[in-house]
Amino acid sequence: MPTIAEVAAMAGVSPATVSRVINGRTSVATPTRERVLAAIEELDYTPNRMARALSLGKSAAIYVVAPVSDNPSVAQRLHGLATTLNQSAFELILHDVETAAQTARLLSELATPDRIAAVILISVRPHSDQLAKLAAAEVPVVFVNANVPGVDCVFVDNLEGGRLAARHLLSIGHRKLAFVGDTEDSDLGFTGSRDRRIAFEETLNAAGVRLPDEFIQLGAHQADDARQATLELLDLNDPPTAIFAASDGQAIGVLEAAYSRELDVPGDLSVIGFDDISSAKGMGLTTIRQPLEESGTFGARLALEAVEHKTLGMAMELPVELIIRRSTAPPNPERE
Amino acid sequence: MPTIAEVAAMAGVSPATVSRVINGRTSVATPTRERVLAAIEELDYTPNRMARALSLGKSAAIYVVAPVSDNPSVAQRLHGLATTLNQSAFELILHDVETAAQTARLLSELATPDRIAAVILISVRPHSDQLAKLAAAEVPVVFVNANVPGVDCVFVDNLEGGRLAARHLLSIGHRKLAFVGDTEDSDLGFTGSRDRRIAFEETLNAAGVRLPDEFIQLGAHQADDARQATLELLDLNDPPTAIFAASDGQAIGVLEAAYSRELDVPGDLSVIGFDDISSAKGMGLTTIRQPLEESGTFGARLALEAVEHKTLGMAMELPVELIIRRSTAPPNPERE
DNA sequence: TTGAAAGCGTTACCAC
DNA sequence: GTGGTAACGCTTTCAA
Q1: A75: distance to nearest CA of chain B, Å?
Q2: Which residues from chain B sit within 8 angstroms of residue A50, using beta carbons?
Q3: Rounded to a whole number, what is the distance in Å from the CA of A93 to chain B's nearest CA?
Q4: Which of A77, B41, B227, B234 has its Cβ near the most Cβ atoms within 10 Å?
Q5: What is the pLDDT of residue A77?
Q6: What is the dihedral of CA B137, B142, B143, B147, to 10 degrees?
């Protein structure tokens, strides 16, 4: 692999000059520049990023922390992120996390700008003391799918999403509604599930409908726990006629459970999810859509902005929208 | 951020000695080692990876190339990969590709061991001249979901998968079967779809069933094109009673199309997919399962092996399995 | 067992 | 405009 010195030798200039034409910082005489460019072309030279980072004291890598498997929606966000970052001069270093503790350990290790330009957290919200460490190191942090005041983030109004779900179900006549979501400690600090439930419940209450404790089922692992939770709901003496799942990943588990009990959806049970992951269409799942891929795109842009222009604290709210498909319908009179 | 020099100063030794204790290469006297360790602890020192890579002439980053959005299955493979790599000393640099041309350009740029330790390609199969370049640079390459002779790879027997699908459909009585898959040029060089179709067709033929040309629909974009393709199939004078989709992502499109025509699945149309992505359960999709997450795990292990022990050319075949759910059933007599 | 010093490929400061 | 050179943080001979 050719180095800057070889290019310099070939062009008959000093390495410093080659560096200048590469980075276009100071002015270089046109004929000189052309000779250098020719040499670069000839040798098929590409600057070594490590050496560059070392010399500059700045990395050109953006660290992305995400629970990749946790939820299909994360992959879509990641796609938006990766597509944008791949077009930039920055590399995307991916770290897949499963627990909040993992995230904590991880963040404390990489909190230095000479190793990493920025960190983007997808659907993860670490405790504020870890954030403080990153802030102290002046590493820009951006959250995708979390609203943290004073920090760059892109998020949706989960409360509004919860309301939309409640109103839809209420409007088609349901009065026995249940919620299946994340446990507070399983969710990597991510508060979306909780917010959705709160707004859901408030909207029900405002309509004079109660959300009894036994109709609130929280679990850690998306589809699997949701299936289990749903089975418990269905086994109640007076089971719900509709279920709001905090994510489409969980809605998948709800559907599985319903089908395993040979229930018809939406005949016997209406199901509404949250996210509108790509497979939601094929499942015919009614859901609250949020722009998934875009959230990644914007997250990447915010990070790039922050790295290049030191702009910080931008908050970006994306819209939520009710998408009605085949999994919700008025309740079966027999089951009311 | 502390450097090796500061640790050395604190421990009252030379940087060389600190380096030795970090890397455990040469012997260091126990008391010395302990002083160094204490200093490292005290200063909360972590070696700078860039500097290390530069000095060593070897990178500790593994490049992963994958069409993240293309297919939900890719995300699951990526998860296995990331989990394994994150536990190793290697960083995972993610590059999301959408076209074969992108992949080609990319690969030619990173073909040097001082910048990247290995490259793992998920569901992508570049032309052999690009591989040659990587091979020449002695960068280990591993394929996940592609079978390339002489190169590390983990794959499944797509032919067997195609056979399983055909036999299942045949065994429950279908005689009018269609195939929805990838176009040859859209598929990033990935030959899975083609292989599945070939074996599917051969198995049908062996049973005396023809797969007419108009029953073979190929498209580029997973669910969207598959939906369109299915609509065309359904509009035929004598439409198929069962569809084999080359991937679950495409099966989602097939289901959508069927529902949009108000057809009952499996009453009016049986659908079988390939992959068993996590949402397949919720969709009740009959499918040919392949170990997705494991493919990533093994891919990562092969890469690590190759980097550390120079072992090359390992081929790893994972099993396929028919998973019967609710989307397939004997054909409706009226439609036969 | 340990230290001094050169070198990895780049950038940036200071002269010319 | 351009070249020389120190510096970035680490590893690794070569001596001691």
Answers
A1: 6
A2: 50-51, 53-54, 59, 114-115
A3: 5
A4: A77
A5: 96
A6: 90
Taking residue A262's Cβ as centre, other Cβ atoms within 10 Å add up to: 7
Where does the pLDDT of residue B98 fall: very low under 50, low under 70, confident under 90, or very high at 90 and above? confident
Q: Could you give the CA distance from residue B297 to residue B78 in angstroms, rounded to a whole number? A: 9
Count other Cβ atoms within 10 Å, centred on residue B56.
12
Query: Whole-angstrom Cα distance, residue A5 to residue A194?
Result: 58
Q: Which residues of A touch B91 (CB under 8 A)?
A: 93
CB A269 within 8 Å of CB A257: no
Q: Are A318 and A294 in contact (CB under 8 A)?
A: yes
Find the helix or strand (DSSP H, E) in which A273 lies.
strand A270-275
- Nearest Cβ partner for A54 among B50, B59, B251: B50
Instruction: Quickly state the pLDDT bin for B220 (edges 50, 70, 90).
Output: confident
| A contact test, residue of B41, B64, B65, B69 with most A CBs within 10 A | B69
Q: How far is CA A193 from the centre of its chain?
A: 14
pLDDT at residue number B110: 67
Q: Which residues in chain A come in under a pLDDT of 50?
A: none
The Cα–Cα gap between B282 and A280 comes to 10
Residue B288 CA: distances (Å) to CA of B85, B159, B319: 27, 11, 10
Residue B86 near chain A (CB below 8 Å): yes
Point out the nucleotide closest to A6 (alpha carbon to C1′): C9
Residues 6+ apart with CB under 8 A from B19: B4
Q: Is B187's pLDDT higher than 60? A: no
- The nearest alpha carbon in chain B to A82 belongs to B96
The separation between the first and the last C-alpha atoms of chain A, rounded to the nearest angstrom, is 73
Closest partner residue to A278 (CB to CB) among B72, B254, B278 is B72
Angle at A100 between CA B292 and CA A319, to 5 degrees: 80
Closest CA to B199 of B214, B179, B183, B219: B179
How distant is the Cα of A254 from the closest Cα of chain B, in angstroms?
Answer: 8
Surface of B (104-143) touching A: CB under 8 A: 109, 112, 114-115, 137
A47 CB inside 7 Å of strand C: yes
